[in-house]
Design a protein that fits this description.
about 160 residues; alpha+beta; five-stranded mixed beta sheet; four-stranded antiparallel beta sheet; 3 helices; about 30% strand
Length: about 160
């Protein structure tokens, strides 16, 4: 069993900072717009919601790991967990598209997209492990049936 942490780069640090600023602005918006929100009950509930979103965002971003197990790839980002059986993977590729997809567990702009079948449906998972070359060699040897497309998409 081999584990890889999520790669963290400048692209995602800036993206994360913008997201936290945006969440905080939306949190403050009701207090600025309406005086009815200036009571202890609203502040308490609204703050609980804000800190829940902030905490889960931190977990998703800073607790990302990818683990090769006997029969599947286990990907975890905070509370989100995915198990991808090796025999269900049909394509692996590098991609610069980090915004759209079925499942996204990224911490970097250097992404790997894994195409697989789940319950008869086509799905994708976008990941960004550290030591990408080593990760790809293990993944391609675990999924010999998969078509592999690798391009240099490095963000620095």
């Amino acid at each position: 069993m081999m584990t890889f942490a999520g790669e963290k780069d400048r692209f995602f640090a800036i993206y994360t900072a913008k997201s936290f600023v945006l969440i905080t602005c939306f949190w403050l918006l009701p207090f600025i717009i309406n005086d009815v929100t200036h009571n202890i009950y609203f502040v308490g509930v609204w703050s609980a919601v804000y800190f829940y979103f902030l905490f889960t965002s931190f977990l998703i971003i800073f607790n990302v790991k990818y683990e090769f197990q006997d029969h599947h790839l286990y990907a975890q980002g905070g509370l989100f967990k995915r198990r991808i059986p090796y025999d269900e993977v049909y394509r692996i590729r590098t991609t610069a598209d980090v915004y759209f997809g079925d499942d996204i567990l990224l911490t970097s702009g250097n992404a790997i997209e894994i195409f697989f079948y789940k319950n008869g449906k086509e799905k994708t998972l976008k990941i960004s492990p550290e030591n990408r070359e080593e990760f790809m060699s293990i993944l391609t040897s675990s999924c010999p049936q998969a078509e592999v497309d690798m391009y240099d998409i490095s963000y620095k």
